[in-house]
Amino acid sequence: MPKISAKRQITLPAHQCRLAGIEPGDEYRSFVTDRRITIVRQAPGSAWGCLEHLEPDETVSEEQSRQDALEAKRARPS
Q1: Could you count the other beta carbons within 10 Å of the beta carbon of residue 30?
Q2: CA angle, 8 then 12 then 13, to 5°
Q3: Collapsing DSSP states into helix, strand and coil, what is residue 45?
Q4: Which of 3, 4, 42, 67 has a beta carbon 3.0–4.6 Å from 27's, enabling a disulfide?
Q5: CB neighbours of 32 closer than 8 A, spacing ≥ 6?
Q6: Are 12 and 22 spatial neighbours (Cβ–Cβ below 8 Å)?
Q7: Within 21-75, where are the H helices?
């Protein structure tokens, strides 16, 4: 069974990497939900166009949007 190293590094089993199509040097995203970590291989260009259906709100500055996001994060229970 793989273990987490002292530097918090994780070795993924080779058979799982083959099944997921993960190769050395690939980039990935990781998410934590309900104390579980999900690792997703990042495909080149996978984010291209994912927000193109959204229209920007010109009445909100980037700074205000950032502040709103930070306040919402602070308001969430830990």
Answers
A1: 9
A2: 145
A3: coil
A4: 42
A5: 38
A6: yes
A7: 62-75
* End-to-end Cα, the chain, rounded Å: 31
| Distance in angstroms (rounded) separating the CA atoms of residues 38 and 36 | 7
| Pick from 74, 70, 14, 8: nearest CA to 37 | 8
Token reading at 36: 């579980």
Q: How far apart are CA 62 and CA 60, in angstroms?
A: 7
Whole-prediction pTM: 0.48
Asked if CATH classification 2.10.260 holds for the domain at 1-43, the reply, yes or no, is: yes
Whether the per-residue pLDDT at 50 is higher than 80: the answer is no
**DSSP notation for 17-34:** HHHHT--TT--EEEEEET
